[in-house]
Amino acid sequence: MRRVTERALQRIGHHVVSVSGIAAAKSHLESDAGVQVIISDVIMPGGTGFDLVRDLRQNGNQTPVLLVSGFTLDALAEDLEADASVALLAKPWDLPSLVAGIEQVRSSLPRA
Questions:
Q1: Range of weakest confidence among 6-10, 17-21, 76-80, 98-102
Q2: Taking CA atoms, which of 20, 41, 73, 85 is between 20 and 30 Å from 35?
Q3: Dihedral of CA 33/9/98/43: which sign?
Q4: pLDDT tens digit string along 57-79?
Q5: pLDDT in tens, 88-102
Q6: Helix (H, G, I), strand (E, B) or coil at 53
Q7: Dist. CA 19–CA 60, nearest whole Å
Q8: What is the rounded CA–CA span in Å between residue 42 and residue 96?
Q9: Structure-derived torsion over alpha carbons of residues 76, 79, 83, 84, reported in degrees to the nearest 10
Q10: Count of alpha carbons within 13 Å of 74, Cβ hemisphere only?
Q11: 3-class DSSP state for residue 52?
């Protein structure tokens, strides 16, 4: 699913960096301050997407996050803190839904 997402976003003009797991994501985010949106599966190697969000926020990283899951979103919504920069997208998604999710979390950022 990661490769499909990567290719779909590249086809519509996004620059994509793909990593495999929470440890790799944290490492990349420490070295690249230019990441505009994080797209993460809820279930991933090394933990959950919620774990990743909590760790990022505790370390002051406010990058918007779109979490993708095959689980019922109502059940997962309880795990989200009141953070407008995090949204959930249900699998299977289509490209317009993915783009809308990205725009939703990006719109949570304060305008400069």
A1: 76-80
A2: 73
A3: negative
A4: 888 888 999 998 887 656 556 65
A5: 888 888 999 999 999
A6: helix
A7: 21
A8: 20
A9: 10
A10: 0
A11: helix
Residues 52/40, Cβ–Cβ less than 8 Å: yes
Predicted pLDDT of residue 112: 47
Report the alpha-carbon distance of residue 77 to residue 60 in Å, rounded: 22
Residue 15, number of CB atoms within 10 A of its CB: 9
Of 56, 34, 52, which Cα lies nearest the Cα of 43? 52
Instruction: Report the C-alpha gap between 10 and 1 in whole angstroms.
Output: 14
Separation between Cα atoms, residue 3 and residue 34, nearest integer Å:
21
d(CA 110, CA 112): 6
**Residue type for 50, please?**
F
Please list the helix, strand and coil fractions of the chain in percent, rounded to the nearest 5, in that order: 40, 15, 40
Specify the amino acid at residue 34: G
